[in-house]
Amino acid sequence: MKSTVITKIINISLRGATLVSKFLLIFFLARFLEPAEVGLYGLLMASVGYAIYWVGFDFYTFSSREIIGAERKLWGGMLKDQAVFFLFIYLLLLPLLMLVFIKGLMPWYLAPWFFLLLILEHLGQELNRLLVAISEPLFASFVLFVRSGAWVCVVLPLMWLDPELRKLETVLAAWSVGVGVACCLGFTRVVHLRLKGWLTAVDWHWVWKGIKVAVPFLLATLAVRGILTVDRYWVQATSDMDLLGAYVLFMGIATAVISFLDAGVFVFIYPALIAAYRNGDSDKFKAGMHQLTLQTVLVGGVISLLAFVLLGPVLSWLDKPFYIEKAGLFSWIMLAMILYGLSMIPHYGLYAKGADKHIILSHLAGLVVFPPSAYMLSRSNGELAVPYALCISFALIFFWKLYAYAVLRGKSCAKNVQLSL
Prior knowledge:
Oligomer: single chain
Structural class: mainly alpha
Largest sheet: none
Strand content: under 5%
Radius of gyration: 22 Å
């Protein structure tokens, strides 16, 4: 029992350290780099993050459950089939992603970094998910820390001590090394499992089954992540890289609300919601939803308030007057993220009930509404057009999910209900 508690504490600590490292990175980059470089970093990071979903295809939503429910002797074959599928996706999509540079959306000198980080981040993400699926959560958290946190703890002191290192290439090199080491650690652990089945023929029926399961998840993910990728390109296209730098900084602060909610609230509550619904325990499900609502509002509210209180001192510490001049962006960006955080309350209620359709449609609606909203608002609101459009999109997503959950609220929990998630 004691060892279990210690393991959980270490696990939470590693994930907390990862989150704090990512949170601090954007502040120090804003101090060390020029706003235009911060903007480029944010653009590259968002582009890599979005492209990962395309090459990964959300296939893990199928493969993870298959591995968990299968005998160990079948794991090797499943991993081989998944690897072949990813190789096919790479061959199909990587050439198409060159359009980002051909069309001038990002400068050519970032192309090698983009493709290197895309491949490494995707492999690291899939290895993390695999480690969780095979009941190695502590090692998975350690690999995640190496991938997203440890390199930050190394590169920031170096940039502080040596002004010559204060450039975007230093950050990208450290990022590449960090995720590369994480991939090596993950691969080493998989090799030590001594799995069999690598030489069996590819089970294309299994792969096709996985594609059909993954597509709905992929659509929902691409839609909501698309909003938070298109926004940066829109700012770049309608303003300049300096403004994009300010936008990336304020967005980094605002998205911390979602990151803390995900790590401190959602991940602990939603599995119990699913279990309660599947077991037909209506009282436990309602109690779980009440707990989810209360904790989301309290934690999100406290973090948002802290962000507003600390924003002034932080911007002064950065010693970059430009960020202070553009501080008006922050309130609207934060409002958009608060709306997104609140939308996760009915989201997990719908998720537990297997109401995938409403989740997917709400996300698609939010993505469809964003470009015309940004375009129309840009005529009269200038720099605030994109934050306003974000608020409109995430408000639509929130109220769509809230209405859908209210309609389904009376739906009784039933044992052995077949969920599509």
